[in-house]
Amino acid sequence: MSSVNVYRSCTLIAVVFSVVVLCAGVDYGKFCDHDDDCHDFRLVCSKASNACVCSNFFNWNETYNTCILNATELKEFLALKADGRDMETVEQLNREAVSTFNKLGFAGLLALSLGLLGASCCVIMFCVVDRKSNYAELEETTVTKPRNNQASDTPGPSILPAEMVAEPFDMAF
């Protein structure tokens, strides 16, 4: 039972720490030299005051001690960015992205095709052709070489001991 209480107390400490860190009013007004010194994405370092302040699209809210999104500022910024010149750039980037996607897709299909072709060639060469050549060699040796004086019924002299000499057998498949 005591281990359960340890886990419960550790969990409680972790939750309290998270709440304090996340809701502690971020770094607004903290001294900074660069934007990276401000630990929230909504904050930037002001060059005039060397302090973390809310960026252009956010306003400081004293009640909640946080930067709140300013939708009108964001809409104005996006409306200025939506002129024809920027749309041409977006269309050009879109064309380049589609072209790159098509090239990568073609390269992938080519790699898969070559891999399948290579695997098929290996199967054909090592399984089918190799077995056919072995069968052909086996038939050739049995047909062209006579078996120990095949003309007469008595076997000829053998260099093997008598217990190792076997009777001839038919190798017809």
TrEMBL record:
Q: What is this protein called?
A: Uncharacterized protein
Q: Which controlled-vocabulary keywords does the entry list?
A: Membrane, Signal, Transmembrane, Transmembrane helix
Highest taxon of the source? Eukaryota
Kindly list the residue ranges recorded as spanning the membrane: 104-129
Position of the signal peptide: 1-25
